């Protein structure tokens, strides 16, 4: 069994699956999510490469902060994807409701409900919260880089 869960947080059994989906950042056809794009915009390409190098320096304060920046950006990207998927479902649901031929079919019933609007608000608020967190983490990282003189 490869999906054992430990009771102690952060000590789950390792699997062969990557923790995050592999994405090629050098592929011009795949655009990075808004979290990763924000980090690249704020730091610039040189700063982003430096962040990646510092991420590999495990055990240092700057390495841990670089890890936090990348984790926060990845979480923002994940939440953005979740919000987009939910928005697509809501759009499809509204299309079903507005298309009389579709809703008349006995096997199909509109699945729209007021809770979908609440869920959309929840996803949007959580994404906005994560982007604000990313801003704070990036500011801390930039201050640490300036203070250590590694810029």
Q: How is the topology of this model organized?
A:
Blueprint lengths: L33 H22 L5 H38 L1 H4 L10 H35 L3
Give a verbal description of the structure:
There is one protein chain. Helix content is 66%, strand content 0%. The termini are far apart. The chain has 4 helices and no strands. The chain is an all-alpha fold and 151 residues long. The N terminus is likely disordered. α1 runs antiparallel to α2 and α2 packs antiparallel against α4. The chain is elongated.
Instruction: Based on Cα principal axes, name the global outline.
Output: elongated
SSE pattern, N- to C-terminal: HHHH
- On the 0 to 100 scale, the average pLDDT is 77
| Low-pLDDT residue intervals, each spanning 5 or more residues | 1-29
Number of helices: 4
Sheet of most strands: none
**Ends: how far apart?**
46 Å
Share of β-strand residues: under 5%
Broad structural category: mainly alpha
Radius of gyration from the CA trace? 21 Å
Portion of residues within helices: 55-70%
How many DSSP E strands?
0
Quick tags:
single chain, 151 residues, mainly alpha, elongated, disordered N terminus
In short:
This protein is 66% helix and 0% strand. The chain is mostly helical and 151 residues long. The relative contact order is 0.13.
